[in-house]
Structures are given as C-alpha cells and as structure tokens.
Description:
By secondary structure, the protein is of the alpha/beta class. It is built from 14 helices and 8 strands. Helices cover 49% and strands 13% of the residues.
Amino acid sequence: MSAAVILGIVALAVWLGLILARGRFFVPRLPTTAPARAHWPAIVAVVPARDEAAAIARAVGSLLAQDYPGDFSIVLVDDHSGDGTAEIARGLAGADAKLRIVAAPPLPHGWTGKLWAMNRGVEEAGEAALILFTDADIAHHPANLRQLAARLEHERRDLVSLMVRLHCDSLAERLLIPAFVFFFAMLYPFAWVADPRRRTAAAAGGCMLIRRAALDRIGGVAAIKSALIDDCALARAVKDSGGAIRLDLTRLTTSIRPYPRLADIWNMIARSAYTQLRYSPTLLAGTVAFMALVYVVPPLLLAVGGTAAWLGAAAWLAMSLAYLPMVLFYGLSPLWAVALPLTALIYLGATIASAWRHFRGRGGAWKGRVEWRNAR
C-alpha cells in the first residue's frame, strides 16, 4: 500500500469521525425560544470600547433600543480611546439616562486591556443580578436582551452567549469568515458546551449574559485578568465552578466591524491563534501536521491518480459537505464550501504567523497595544 493511499485513508477516516462523533458541530446551533418571565431581573450592559468611533453610535443605539421589560442600564468604559469614541458616546448619553460613560483607569501589570475595562464596568454595575458583556461593534436585535434573559432563567444557566453574525460581504470575508465559525464550532462543539457532563466550555465575547452570583463565585473578572481569549476563559471558569453555560449562533444580532481585506482577517487570527495553542511549539507542530493532512492533502491526492485520488476526492467531498451548512448560514453559494482547503491553508499560515509574532514579542497586539505577557 502506497504512502499516498495511506494518507487518503487517514484523511477520510478523520473526516468521517468528525462528522459522526464530534457533537454535530457542523450544524449551526440556533437559540431556542424561552417562555416569557413573570419577573425580569435587573441587567447592566458593560461595554468596553477602545477606538470605536465608527461603530459606537450604532452599537450603543441598539442597546438603548432593547425592549427588555425589567430594569436595564448601560455602562460604557472608554479604554483610552484616541478617536473621539467617548465624545460620541457622551452625545448619546445626554439623551438617555440609562447610559453612563466611565474611563478605564491606567492599565496595571498583569491585566489585558479589555478585561481591565470590563472589570471597571462591573464595579459600576452595582448590585444588578445579571451583567451583559458586549463589544462596542455589535448591533443588537431589539429583542436580544429579553430573549437572552428568558433563556438563561428558563434553563437555569449561569452564562448564555451568542456568536453574532459576523460581517461577510467582501471577497476576503466570504472566503474566511464562515470558516472562522466552522473551525470554532469544531474546536468547541456547541452541544458539548451546553452539556454539563462535558468539560468543553466556550463563549463569544461579543455577547455574553452572566449571573452576577456566578461571576462573584469565580472571583470576578480578576480571575481571568491575563487571558487573551477572554470569552472562552470566562466560560471555562464558570463551568469549572459548577455553572451551566450555553452558546448559540444568531443571524439577528450582528457585528458591525468589516474585514474588507485579507490582511484584516489575517491579523485577527494571528492575534490569538498561538494563545489558543497555549504557546506550545509541540501543539503548533501538531496543528500544522493535522491541518495539512485533513485539509490540504485531499485535493493534492487528485494529482496522484488511482485509489489515492478516489480517497482524496472522498475526503474533500466529506469536508465540503460538513462545511456546507455554515456556508448556507451566511447566505453564500454552495461553491464556497469546495474552497475550504484554500481557506484552511490561509488559516494555517496565520497560525504560524501568530507563533512568530509571539517569539518576536509582538503577540496579542491590538489597536496599538501589545499585551503585557508578550512584551519584551
């Protein structure tokens, strides 16, 4: 048996195993509708914002337009913006008393900037029973908060999160954004996240509703103060403490942030990919080998011919069929599913670039700030 045939058998077996035994990760998991509540707990939305002048008015406006029946207010934490973000927000605050703008204190050693801003927002939240952590580039559907709270209370969860619909208009976005969600769901199957019997834990930082009691139980935001992938770190801490969590996809609440160029998405991936691998050269090497085998080898086997070509075609078909539901979720042509090997190759390059940036002391760079653990 030739090496090419063996590679084809392994690649096909991996895809069949993923499809059959990985929590149906390839099926977009949408939120269920929960019944209305007789009592609606008080909620404070905490919005860390750093240089978000282009999006802040729409994002905060969508929060002010929520139809939540209970007490609701917003704390926007200006994280040392230099583009007028705070001034735009103050203009909105003048028209609605529900919105407060506070400044993040100077960043102390040992904290990431976003988490320090979130911590400041929690301090301003008072005794609210629930806290919504949301980014300053998210446009919330008017019913989003009400549905999140109803789902959290009905299912007795400590944390419910939504992966919002990301911007997907440019050529680069259509090539790479659906795959970003696909790879995330493969790594953290949403059904396993919601299953208390499994250790899998994840959340999406753009929209996370958490019980204040659960946040206090884990030691507050300080418990994850150095995490670059803060959303998954928060979910892990809550689940490890005995809390129930849930993560879903949504089409209705959306990201405002565009990624018009390939470089924009490349930098987004490279910022934290090596962090996801726990800064381990061994895990990096394993990831490179796995992605090359599973995504790149199948189409290459077509050039070999014979049995290897048939196995490569079968593996490519399996990955395309697995990816297809996410492509359709984003309203794209099914033909984009066939391009997954190319997409994966770009992600592989960005992952290697992430490790290189870390070794050069530039890991975690975001909006002009390099996080402390990577600075040299």
